[in-house]
Amino acid sequence: MSTTKFLMVGAGLSGAVIGRHLAEAGHDVTVVDARSHVGGNCHTERDAETGVMVHVYGPHIFHTDDSEVWDYVNSYTTFLPYKNRVKTTSKGVSGEREVYSLPVNLHTINQFFRRTMRPDEAHEFITTEQADTSIADPQTFEDQAMRFVGRDLYEAFFKGYTMKQWGCHPSELPASILKRLPVRFNYDDNYFFHKYQGMPENGYTEMVAAILDHPRISVKLETVFDRSQAAEYDHVFYSGALDGWFGYELGRLGYRTLDFERFTYQGDYQGCAVMNYGEVEVPYTRITEHKHFAPWESHEGSVCYREFSRKCTPDDIPYYPIRQVREKALLSDYVALAEKTQGVTFVGRLGTYRYLDMDVTIREALDTARAFAADLSEGRAPRAFYQAPL
Ligand SMILES: Cc1cc2nc3c(=O)[nH]c(=O)nc-3n(C[C@H](O)[C@H](O)[C@H](O)COP(=O)(O)OP(=O)(O)OC[C@H]3O[C@@H](n4cnc5c(N)ncnc54)[C@H](O)[C@@H]3O)c2cc1C
Question: Key word Flavoprotein present in the record (predicted)?
Answer without folding.
Answer: yes
